Amino acid sequence: MIRFQNVTKRYATGQEALSRVDIQIDRGEMVFLTGHSGAGKSTLMKLIMLMERPSNGRIEIGGRDTSGIKRSGIAHYRRDIGVVFQNHQLLFDRSVFDNVALPLQVAGYQNSDVGRRVRAALDKVGLLHKERANPVTLSGGEQQRVGIARAVVNKPALVLADEPTGNLDPALSAEIMTLFRQFNELGVTLMIATHDIDLIERMNKRVLQLAEGRVIAGGGNL
Amino acid sequence: MSRITPPRSNATRSNASRPPVARKQVTRATTPRSQGASQSKTAWRDRLSAWQAHHSNCAIESLLRLLRTPLQSTLTWLVVAIATALPATLYVALLNIESLGYHWQDSSQISVFIKPAAKSTAIEKWADTLRTRADISDVVYVSPEQALLEFKAYSGLGAVLDDLTENPLPAVLLVQPSSTTTGEPLERLLAELASNHLTDDARLDMMWVKRLEQLVELASRGVFFLAALLALGLLLVVGNTIRLAIESRRDEILIVKLVGGTDAYVRRPFLYTGLWYGLGGGLIALVLLSLGLAWLETPVASLAELYQSEFNLRGLSLVHNLQLVLAAGLIGLAGAWLAVGRHLTQIAPH
Q1: What is the pLDDT of residue B243?
Q2: Does residue B35 carry a pLDDT above 70?
Q3: pTM of the model
Q4: Are B285 and B263 contained in the same domain?
Q5: Do residues B159 and B129 both lie within one domain?
Q6: Inter-chain touch A61–B262, beta carbons under 8 Å
Q7: What is the pLDDT of residue B341?
Q8: What secondary structure, in 3-state letters, does B116-148 show?
């Protein structure tokens, strides 16, 4: 699903965020991405989202070489990837329902379809009863669950999560992780960047460890 | 990348325990290949209607958004309206002056002043010959006596004229050239009339009409130049307003881009906002223009009465009105396009 071959990312400032990285993640896997801040976690995520392009090397997502995707194709490419952010990035000028519906509206789904899928996604994260609420009235854990619903509403094959439990207490974090595990069992490939070592150990999944822009463990067999 | 497409009950827990590989086989088995084409066709149609829905949504939502901040929107609308009304007013003024010119040009005639010694029978005879010519539509003979009477009636100098011992006015032939006689043939006719032995002097007072025409031509170029400058100004005003709107919705734009919104999708609401600014401003400009015309109508009518003229102040036609509003709308749209083109690419997720 995700394949990095000899990928280097050097920023304009000269800083090398990733150096000659090789990664192989299969379809349906659930992988944790760890490392100190500055180890290259977010750069790796940005490269997958095509928010950044590699300076060197080859990135394949879902069997497709990303270097062949032009600027105009990025929007369609991103529709197949769900993203969960640390600060959930919800819009407070609209309801929970409208927040979750955004990826579907963007992709041009029919209104009737949108309603069905949004409710299914909200049901999965246990927030169907809050669909009319404004996200600002929800707790931190609930807001993150809305963020997850938005990431999966389009049924993407790949979901990226950047510190999804960063601001949550352990009980809520465990709840969020259970949700992720359920999606993984449905066949979704998951990559979760996190600092939370306890959580990772409890989940018993593959751990991809980065340090100073290099993979030091869990890169997988290329 | 293939999207995971589980059947309807994907939300149920019973499916959750199944391994992904097995599920995929189930999916493939339930959707045979033959349905593929018809499915993609409906999907395409769905997408088209969703696209239309997004357009009308954007149009309505951006208008509502403008109405939610009435003071700010009204100010922008007024700026657009004034910048539109100004050249439109000048254009209307020009139209009226032009029509005034045509009015007078139609009544242009050659005044042939007859020598005082000429006998009235000779003059009448000449007038009859002139009437038969193709390049002359009418000839009116004004005898010195008639001329004096008219002069007394309209000049207000009746009492003074009574003191005169003899009539100082010459006989006049008012020659109306036919409507097709213009330019060089007209000049030739004038020369011919002037060279007659009865003629003292022949005059064609066309010079001032030509001057007026030239002035109107000059003024209309001025109006176009002014209109172009103001259109440019409008473009910048709307562009700047849209830039602020884009800044205030930065978060939304970032998220929409991250979940796969195309540039066109992100652009659309702002383009509609620009269109509304232009159309609204154009409509207000029409109101301003007709208020101004109504205000001027009475004084113009009484002025025309003093000149014994049938002249009426003309406004813009319906088509012109529509064109004005449409032009303002297009300028608004173009301003939005400029702002969106410049600023949306700068807002990229990072």
Answers
A1: 93
A2: no
A3: 0.71
A4: yes
A5: yes
A6: no
A7: 87
A8: CCCCHHHHHHHHHHHHCCCCEEEEEEECHHHHH
